[in-house]
Amino acid sequence: MTAPLVHTLPVGPLQCNCSILVDRETREALVIDPGGDADQILVALANERARAVALLHTHAHFDHILATAEVARVTQAPARLHPGDRELYETLPDQAAFFGFHADPPAPLGPPLSDGEVIAFGSSRIRAIHTPGHTPGSTCFLLDSAEPILFAGDTLFRRSIGRTDLWGGDTDQILASIRERLYALPDSTPVVCGHGPGTSIGEERRSNPFVRG
Q1: pLDDT at residue 61, as a whole number
Q2: What number is the average pLDDT over the span 106-113?
Q3: Domains in the chain: ranges and CATH
Q4: What confidence score (pLDDT) does residue 110 get?
Q5: pTM, whole model, 2 decimals?
Q6: HSE on the CB side for 7, CA within 13 Å?
């Protein structure tokens, strides 16, 4: 199986890493965390001649969902989220206002994501891994290919972990999610973080000061 094209671009006021995954044969695509700058995301899809079939969210903090409504409107792709974050998703305008930004009400959600669910785009596959802690519904996505990649959202960062002092955060949960679910992956697995530079499972298992393997 040919690995899909993966294009990651920082978007929105907090530079969330939005990833676009494109199946090379069918040009079906997934958009992970459309956190702002809808025009940039839509241009990236158009440049790849790609058709979004789902908008996946690692969690529902405002900086990861700001462009969801516009991208969903243009592409008609369903917005998908773990049900643990539905209530948070619906407070988008209030979340944004708390940080000094404006946001319109969010787009309607499509079918909820479930732990272990496999989402297809063309002949490519990605698997949802529920990793509560940063938020109740936080979910990572593992690309199932010869070159697997973990899209970790704000659960795991290079030498850091996601905040747990915001809505629904739980420090014990996030540490357990990382140790039990993410560190179970092979050390060689690359990690695309929700913000900032990438890393690998092995690097974090050895060197992350918050949670070593």
Answers
A1: 97
A2: 97
A3: 5-207 (3.60.15.10)
A4: 98
A5: 0.97
A6: 20
